[in-house]
Amino acid sequence: MTQSTRILLAAAATFVAVAVADAQAQTVLRFSNWLPPTHHVVTEMVTPWAADVEKATEGRVKLQILPALGAPPAHFDLVKNGVADVAFGVHAYTPNRFKLTEMGELPFTADHSVVNSLAYWRSYAKHFAKYNEHEGTHLLGLWTNGPYQLFTKANAFTSLDAVNGIKIRIPGATVERITKALGMTPISSPLTEAYEQISRGVIQGMFQQKETVISFNMTQHMPVASFVPGGFAHSSQFMVMNEAKWKGLEARDRDAIAKLSGEAMVRRFAAVWEAKEQAALAKFAETGVKITNVEGKLLEDLRGKLQFVTDEWLAEATKKAPEAAAALAEYKAAIPAVARELNVKP
How far lies 296's CA from each of 127, 153, 251, 293, 303, in Å? Predict the structure, then answer.
């Protein structure tokens, strides 16, 4: 064997060793996805974010999007217990477990998804993150989508008694309390069953985002919409990573992912929701949805009727976080401030 051959073989061996080391260094994070693969949470939020993570970590960290490893309400525990490494979820799917995040579900806050989400995130991160409600996981971000408004077959919200007695699908505990306070009958069910329920007359309406009513083709069965400023309620959503998996990443990769998480994620994901809400609103006229804007004395009466929702949350939240009242005040004060920052209506 000549000297040049030995040099070439040594170089090849070094190249292979480096390539093997690089391959072994790659961390594949299993993302459990309970939504349809074509849903915009997957295609416009998770998938682009995953691509940016891979790029920012120079390929050392990659997300593998898998079919659901459990039911939607189980996804926080799937990550906490290490069955999945990362997941998206909805806090209200496990009622009363995440008491402090219910601040983001309260009525009459903001209509704009990004405004509401940033105000919510900043207050939560400052006051509530230290109480570690997401224990066992690393919280990558939390945000809200568009506000829940009332969509019905026939009953516009023209008085406090106008919706009395009708059956309404509810997405969580906060909306359930609101539904009962307004004299309606709450029916709890997965969103995937909503179309069948409303089309068969099992329910006469639901509190829902505008986007969902359009994307699930429910306008023909719920052509009556009643809107209140800031929404009847909101949906608080999150993305978490298993804590051990997070700590096991290289420091440079944690730093890279952190730059794509927190407020950056909140802005990014809420912006997708806001775009969907605006697109849905534009389609209401062509699909025959008639909108009633609740205002004036009726709105003030409604605020008074639903004040207990905030009061009850505050009483429970204060048991866990003594500064809950201050956090809520900052959240509400931040809404107009963030709207000015973004130059949009709140």
Answer: 34, 24, 55, 10, 11
Edge-to-edge strand ranges of the sheet holding 290-293: 185-188, 167-170, 205-208, 149-152, 224-227, 290-293
pTM: 0.90
For residues 47 and 17, give the distance between their C-alpha atoms in angstroms, rounded to a whole number: 31
> In this structure, what are the phi and psi dihedrals at residue 290, rounded to the nearest 5 degrees?
-100, 125
Which run of H or E residues covers position 167? strand 167-170
Q: What are phi and psi of 65, to 5 degrees?
A: -85, 115
Residue matched to tokens 């997405």? 171
Report the phi/psi class of residue 286: left, alpha or beta, with left for phi > 0 and alpha for psi in -120 to 50: alpha
| Run of H or E including 121 | helix 113-127
Q: How far is CA 80 from CA 25, 69, 122, in A?
A: 23, 13, 24
pLDDT averaged per 10 residues in sequence order, the chain, 346 residues: 45 40 72 95 98 98 98 96 97 92 98 98 98 98 97 96 95 92 92 89 96 93 98 97 98 98 98 97 94 98 98 98 98 98 96
CA dist., res. 167 & res. 49, Å (int): 39
